[in-house]
From TrEMBL:
<protein>
    <submittedName>
        <fullName>Sugar diacid recognition domain-containing protein</fullName>
    </submittedName>
</protein>
<feature type="domain" description="Putative sugar diacid recognition">
    <location>
        <begin position="3"/>
        <end position="118"/>
    </location>
</feature>
<dbReference type="InterPro" id="IPR051448">
    <property type="entry name" value="CdaR-like_regulators"/>
</dbReference>
<dbReference type="InterPro" id="IPR042070">
    <property type="entry name" value="PucR_C-HTH_sf"/>
</dbReference>
<dbReference type="Pfam" id="PF05651">
    <property type="entry name" value="Diacid_rec"/>
</dbReference>
<feature type="domain" description="PucR C-terminal helix-turn-helix">
    <location>
        <begin position="296"/>
        <end position="353"/>
    </location>
</feature>
<dbReference type="InterPro" id="IPR025736">
    <property type="entry name" value="PucR_C-HTH_dom"/>
</dbReference>
<dbReference type="Pfam" id="PF13556">
    <property type="entry name" value="HTH_30"/>
</dbReference>
<dbReference type="InterPro" id="IPR008599">
    <property type="entry name" value="Diacid_rec"/>
</dbReference>
């Protein structure tokens, strides 16, 4: 395949929207066919000819560039299509090493555009799994966001997070979802799960009803409706995973949950792995150690399940009101927290949610 002047100039124009230096694209003979500097068009690029001869990236500092006719400091990288060198990408700048990462990202973009022009990729931008994993990693670099922008993937477009757990693997779900909701991203996970990042943040129920018609059996879904740009999606993804784990434990009969349904337990779930919750757990750990038969912990669970109603709790446990009062007094003595007082009850409730998660993982 020959690299066309039109495609070369498109690569240049996309790159120069975000890169400070000039960008050149050369064909397989080293002729500049796309450039941010019109005066350099259709001239020979000495650095590109070296790249073509050696088949590798060539970085030029100011001294090295001065020894080559018409060359400028920067970095030049080969462009391949299906293993065949079809051109060279050049990015100018004084610090070639500092340019290397953005130039490599730009090279990937250029090669995808070349494949797209050859009909090997669809014209609609499709988010690649490796790039999405990098974008969602904590501390992802600004260069990755720029690369996604060059690919037309609109990383700054706010998206919500919908986590889907299928009863069986659904390998074709990502392609369908990105066609079904334009500008959405999809990321596969283990155990037949998919993360679906959708612009618009509309309630997903109507979309979920379409899944059986595609042959997919949905076991459970967890929705975080707050839409955020790519820089906030790593945090939102963790929240979706926490919500799914909490729903399985606290709402096993619910197949669709949203963050509002379990906001506090989901937040606490995140604290288990991301902060030190020992201070909150310590009173209940004392209670557990003294409560050999689990009677007091069962009472505490029932107390909160019955919304702290003495009559309802006593009936649920098959106790007289005085028997319940005796157990609550023992809980207070062992923990230093009285479940009949709101502030103490709130602390005990949060600790109980944390402890349930701790025991489930033990």
């Amino acid at each position: 395949m020959e690299l066309s002047q039109t495609l070369a100039q498109e690569i240049v124009e996309r790159a120069m929207r975000i890169l400070p230096g000039n960008v050149n694209v050369m064909d397989a003979s080293g002729l500049i066919i796309g450039s941010g500097d019109p005066a350099r068009l259709f001239t020979r690029h000495a650095g590109a000819r070296q790249v073509i001869a050696e088949g590798r990236a060539v970085a030029l500092d100011r001294a090295a560039a001065a020894r080559l006719p018409g060359a400028q400091a920067g970095i030049n990288l080969p462009l391949y299509r299906q293993g065949e060198l079809v051109g060279v990408l050049g990015v100018t700048g004084e610090d070639a090493e500092q340019l290397r990462l953005p130039a490599e990202l730009l090279r990937l973009t250029a090669e995808m555009l070349i494949e797209q022009a050859a009909g090997q990729l669809p014209n609609t931008p499709i988010m690649t799994t490796p790039l999405l994993r990098q974008l969602l990693a904590p501390g992802a670099t600004v260069e990755l966001g720029r690369h996604a922008t060059l690919l037309g993937l609109k990383p700054d477009l706010p998206r919500d997070v919908l986590l889907l757990a299928f009863a069986a693997p659904a390998p074709d779900f990502g392609d369908w979802a990105q066609r079904r909701v334009p500008d959405s991203w999809c990321l596969p996970r283990e155990d037949g799960q998919w993360l679906w990042y959708r612009p618009g943040a509309e309630a997903p129920e109507a979309l979920l009803e379409e899944l059986p018609t595609q042959g997919w059996a949905l076991a459970r879904s967890a929705w975080i409706p707050q839409a955020r740009p790519w820089t906030g999606l790593a945090e939102t993804t963790l929240r979706a995973l926490d919500l799914l784990a909490v729903a399985r434990r606290l709402r096993p009969q619910r197949h669709q949950v949203r963050l509002d349904d379990l906001a506090l337990p989901t937040w606490l779930q995140g604290q288990v792995s991301r902060t030190d919750g020992a201070w909150l757990l310590e009173p209940l750990l004392r209670l557990r150690q003294a409560d050999r038969e689990g009677q007091l912990l069962a009472t505490l669970h029932s107390w909160f399940a019955q919304d702290a109603s003495p009559q309802a709790c006593a009936e649920a446990l098959g106790l007289h009101r005085n028997g319940l009062r005796h157990r609550l007094d023992r809980i207070q003595a062992l923990t230093g927290r009285d479940p009949r007082r709101f502030a103490d009850a709130a602390e005990l409730y949060c600790a109980l949610l944390l402890m349930d998660h701790h025991w489930a993982d033990a």
